[in-house]
Design a protein that fits this description.
CATH architecture of the largest domain: Roll
Strand content: 25-35%
Shape: globular
Helix content: 10-25%
Number of helices: 6
Structural class: alpha+beta
Oligomer: single chain
Radius of gyration: 24 Å
């Protein structure tokens, strides 16, 4: 008698039965991430990763099921001081869309020493499950429905070979945000700095733009007012919510502006890019008249990339 499953790996039939009856695969079925010690091409794990990415890239472009994808798995890599977004992308055979989507990066400069990046063994993007069905996504991305993978841990579909939409790329490269002041001088950049009050090294989560008191402050991008009022060291603060999980913060204002319709700025007010939202001041924890400007994504501070 032929024992079909004798030499097959454990879990093979479980995976096939789940796929056959259409149950969403759980993130717990994914293998534990493989830690990449380095990005050297001689590293066996890098070789395996690059080979799998190459194979899966070709398989994802095939609409038929004759070229199945390998099971989705992840690698992790701890960023060193000599790394940057583009070298990591090249050495792991990734593309901009994959690294950005999987790690929820806001720009190519959203990389720092010690950061742990997730790197899948196939190119693709996450897609929020709140709207389209699996079949609708298959038509949208022109891919076989059976190749779309559900990641329960992130409550998202993983779309092999998927690409970011134009709007997401616009935010990523900084084309979405404009400088919030016309004339200014940068007095403190994003990152570590000497605190002006304590002289200790601290992390500065935005940029400080010095300008005369009363200089107009403009919305950096279209959005909806999330907060208007006083908040701790920010002093007079406005928070604007934007698309794709982004928000901008404008601190130390002298006063808030009215909208173009001469009404007060309140939570829920829609503002346009370039619309006046306030004036420069030094309320809160400030040593002079300036605007503290922040960009956040999914509540995490990001290095502002402005045009």
């Amino acid at each position: 008698m032929l024992h079909i499953g004798k030499h097959l790996p454990k879990g093979f039939f479980l995976f096939c039965s789940i796929t056959a009856i259409g149950i969403l695969p759980s993130a717990r079925l994914f293998p534990a991430p493989v830690a990449l010690a380095n990005l050297n091409y001689s590293n066996p794990d890098i070789k395996t990763l690059r080979e799998e990415v190459k194979y899966n890239l070709k398989a994802s472009k095939t609409k038929s099921d004759r070229n199945p994808l390998t099971p989705l798995k992840f690698y992790t890599y701890k960023v060193t001081k000599d790394d940057n977004f583009f070298t990591i992308m090249a050495k792991t055979s990734m593309d901009m869309d994959t690294l950005t989507s999987i790690n929820k990066l806001s720009s190519p400069y959203d990389i720092y020493t010690g950061q742990k990046l997730l790197i899948p063994n196939m190119r693709g993007i996450y897609h929020d499950t709140s709207q389209e069905t699996k079949q609708e996504l298959a038509r949208l991305y022109r891919i076989s429905p059976d190749k779309i993978i559900y990641d329960k841990m992130n409550s998202s579909w993983f779309i092999p070979g998927g690409r970011l939409q134009g709007k997401e790329k616009m935010f990523f490269y900084g084309h979405a945000f404009a400088y919030p002041l016309d004339d200014f001088r940068v007095t403190s950049r994003y990152g570590k700095r000497s605190d002006p009050f304590t002289n200790k090294q601290t992390f500065h989560g935005g940029v400080d733009l010095a300008a005369p008191k009363g200089s107009p402050i403009f919305a950096s991008a279209d959005g909806v007012i999330e907060f208007v009022g006083k908040r701790g060291g920010y002093g007079n603060l406005i928070i604007i919510k934007h698309e794709l999980g982004y928000e901008t913060r404008y601190g130390h204002m002298n006063q808030f502006a009215t909208t173009l319709q001469a009404g007060k700025l309140t939570k829920g007010t829609r503002v346009k890019k370039g619309e006046k939202i306030g004036e420069v001041g030094m309320t809160g924890r400030a040593t002079g008249n300036h605007l503290h400007f922040e960009v956040r994504r999914f509540s995490k501070v990001e290095k502002p990339v402005l045009r």
